[in-house]
Amino acid sequence: MGLSFTIIGMSDSPHPFFAPDVLERISASKVFSGGKRHRQIVEKLLPDGFRWIDITVPLDDVYQQYRQEDCHIVVFASGDPLFYGFASTLQRVMPEVPMEVFPHFNSLQMLCHRALLAYHDLHVVSLTGRPWKEFDNALIEHRSKIGILTDRQKTPDAIARRMLEYGFTFYKFHVGEHLGNPESEKVSQLSVEQAAVTTFSAPNCLVLTIDGDAPARRFGIPESEFTLLDGRVKMITKMPVRLLTLQRLELYSKKTFWDIGFCTGSVSIEARLGFPHLDITAFEIRPEGQQLIESNSRKFSAPGIEYSIGDFLETDIPDDIFCDSAFIGGHGGHLEDIMRKVYSHLTPGGCMVFNSVTSNLVAAGSRDEFIRVADALGMRLEEPTHIELDNNNPIDILKAVK
Predict the structure, then answer these.
(1) pLDDT(290) > 80
(2) Residue 365 has pLDDT above 90, yes or no
(3) What pLDDT, on a 0 to 100 scale, did the predictor assign at position 366?
(4) Which of 117, 171, 248, 344 has its CB surrounded by the most CB atoms within 10 Å?
(5) Is pLDDT larger for residue 163 or for residue 394?
(6) What ranges do the domains of the chain cover?
(7) What is the pLDDT of residue 388?
(8) What are phi and psi of 122, to 5 degrees?
(9) Full-prediction pTM beyond 0.85?
(10) How far apart are CA 81 and CA 74, in angstroms?
């Protein structure tokens, strides 16, 4: 016969309704699988002598049990099994095994139905066992309608607290709890502030909608608005230079960006706001940098920047960690060593950019050193970009490509 699957989506209702063709699959089968909650709901529908395989972690053990059965297995799953669901997982792990799917409404669809929200334009983010990255990106992009799948840690109130921390207060929360269960279903509408201090029962999901007018997204933040290192305005990359630097890095086509010597975090923050898809890691030797980048990230609503405090040359970066763009904003007299370390983690076609103040003899020496080291590493040097903000501050933006 061989292994095959029928995967049936269902809600949390203790009295599920299944179409006749689904009931036929159930009555004709002997081996079933699903979570403990699914078994409690459907057990009364299963034929005598059935066998049940619990879906529990580690899932590799579950897959092994499936392969040992070598027969048709009916799997019960929540909602639409192809929407961040178990059918998608099985397709990835066992692509050769035949499968049919009978979906139910997924939880976000059900919430939109209850709240009367059209969902053709819903931007979906899963936080179920996943990091904040895609959610942060959606907030930075000011997505007008965001559907979020939660878990036991990233709950609606935890999500609201993160939004408050970074100033995303212009959203309305629509939260659904126990959707599909008539005995415990609850749908509520709250402000971000209200959601942050409310406890929600699981399982739940939520939809965020922009409430009123969202503030305009920033592009080109004046240096006077940043919290500075000891108020020293010279310790920040000036806004026009910052934007030209980001342009030379071609971040729209990159995946990872390293900002070495971030100081206030201005370059990382501008990159985060302009290119939310990037994975950004910022490095700074001064311990004061931690407070600065955290404060400025919150001030300009730029969550998701990873940072490392300490000497970049002494920072342990695993050999299998790579970047495809890097800005060297500070080098402390160790430019060659920094360039060589960056080069060892740079992907083919990746680039590094360095700004040199050409009117300063020391900086001019660094310019020559950047060119010399890039040439020694076999990198391709592109034509410098020259900019003069005033008569005393001419700058060359240098770029080398691996």
Answers:
(1) yes
(2) no
(3) 84
(4) 171
(5) 163
(6) 4-104, 108-210, 223-401
(7) 83
(8) -75, 125
(9) yes
(10) 13
Q: Which amino acid is at 7?
A: I
State the residue for tokens 């008569």.
Answer: 391
Choices 3.40.50.150, 3.40.140.10, 3.30.160.70, 3.20.20.80: CATH for 223-401: 3.40.50.150
Q: Kindly report the three-state secondary structure assignment for every residue of the chain.
A: CCCEEEEEEECCCCCCCCCHHHHHHHHCCCEEEECHHHHHHHHHHCCCCCEEEECCCCHHHHHHHHHHHCCEEEEEEECCCCCCCHHHHHHHHCCCCCEEEECCCCHHHHHHHHHCCCCCCCEEEECCCCCCHHHHHHHHCCCCEEEEECCCCCCHHHHHHHHHHCCCCCEEEEEEECCCCCCCCEEEEEEHHHHHCCCCCCCEEEEEEECCCCCCCCCCCCHHHCCCHHHCHHHCCCHHHHHHHHHHHCHHHCCEEEEECCCCCHHHHHHHHHCCCCEEEEEECCCHHHHHHHHHHHHCCCCCCEEEECCHHHCCCCCCCCEEEEEECCCCCCHHHHHHHHHHHEEEEEEEEEEEECCCHHHHHHHHHHHHHHHHCCCEECCCEEEECCCCCEEEEEEEEC
Q: 246 with 197: CB under 8 angstroms?
A: no
Q: Is the pLDDT of residue 19 over 70?
A: yes
152, amino acid identity: R
CB 262 within 8 A of CB 294: no
* Average confidence (pLDDT) over 157-176: 98
Using an 8 Å Cβ cutoff, are 12 and 40 in contact? no
By the 10 Å C-beta count (0-12 exposed, 13-18 middle, 19+ buried), 333 is classed as exposed
Question: Which CATH topology does 108-210 take?
Answer: 3.30.950
> Which of 112-121, 203-212, 304-313, 354-363 is the least confident region?
354-363
CATH superfamily of this structure's domain 4-104 = Tetrapyrrole methylase, N-terminal domain (3.40.1010.10)
Find tokens 């699914």 and name the residue. Answer: 38
CA distances from 315 to 244, 278, 289 (A): 28, 21, 16
For the chain, what's the residue count?
402
306-309/279-284 β-pairing: parallel
**Confidence (pLDDT) at 228:** 78
